[in-house]
């Protein structure tokens, strides 16, 4: 806990934990901004760690404070190679020193990793190379991470020079009860982490057939032919777009650590990575059966990790029994939570092209009045698919513009698809 203005008592830590842990008797998650007895709490959660800001007054925008917490999380990741409880324990002094440079008397001063390197003296303690870290989001979805600090290159003459580029896409899609798509949208970003000495210029080339609405000077016909279509996009200030409309290349002088090169959005048709079909029927007095069929529509070479399917069932359900295909049940788990009124179906991993079926038999309270159709569903999916993106946006090449004989740093490009809101009506 770091107290800058001494206007919030030490009991605020316990108050925050209890409110978030037991928010409104367990009815949903606590919002990122809430107030208790005149104290305002704003928080984010990354890697299982809560970053919280408290104040008695709100002279600044609460959204600004939440964004500031996100910047602090990014700086800790840049220095320590990740963010979780173990990282904070082993780098406690470093994190305190960073906070002293970032915040002065409760006011944000500097959130630039590159500038902070001049003043921060402590050295980070990095996790082992086999460490696995959260790439995006906080759903416990693990993919191979990058446990590397910006100090590796600055203070280690033998440090390996590398640059990492991630194309991360989050899907928001809704299927109606017939299985047809009623709305869909992809929010994506190109993220870069640079560990190059001297910060040389970098050129990144994207698809030749990339078409962006509103950039009619590109010579492409938006919406016609075969290509990658984006409804809109924006670039970081460090990006130079001198030749982007001509050859789809962007140039930049990357700062130290992680930054977002480009954000984009598309509502164009794409192949959803998962198809769900459902059947709900009464099978006897106070008994019903929900049949869920799942098919992975992505290539067999890809695997989906951390797959979780949840579906609300009537609150009057007293028991739910499950039946899985015995030949394919390995790595699957089912559960019914009476507190949340949901059934859960989880997979360790799903290979592209696989099909799975779940039959949930629901026993209802015979004394309760139940509207089965209205109280069942919708189904929600959570998943991460490494090495796959649905928009087909690609990095053709990554060029480091540094004229030095024998200079050949490591270049890494990854594609990650995640669910943001994946909803299927029953």
How many DSSP E strands? 26
**Terminal CA distance:** 46 Å
Mean pLDDT: 85
Overall outline: globular
Supply Rg.
24 Å
What oligomeric arrangement do these chains adopt? single chain
Which regions contain 5 or more consecutive residues with pLDDT less than 50? 130-144, 217-224
Helical coverage, percent range: 10-25%
Number of helices: 8
Largest β-sheet summary: 9 strands, mixed
Please explain how this structure is put together:
The protein has eight helices and 26 strands. With 426 residues, the chain is mainly beta. The strands form seven sheets. The protein has a nine-stranded mixed β-sheet with strand order 13-16-9-8-26-24-19-22-21, with helices on one face. A hairpin with a 2-residue loop joins β1 and β2. The longest helix has 19 residues, at 62-80. Mean pLDDT is 85; it is low at 130-144 and 217-224.
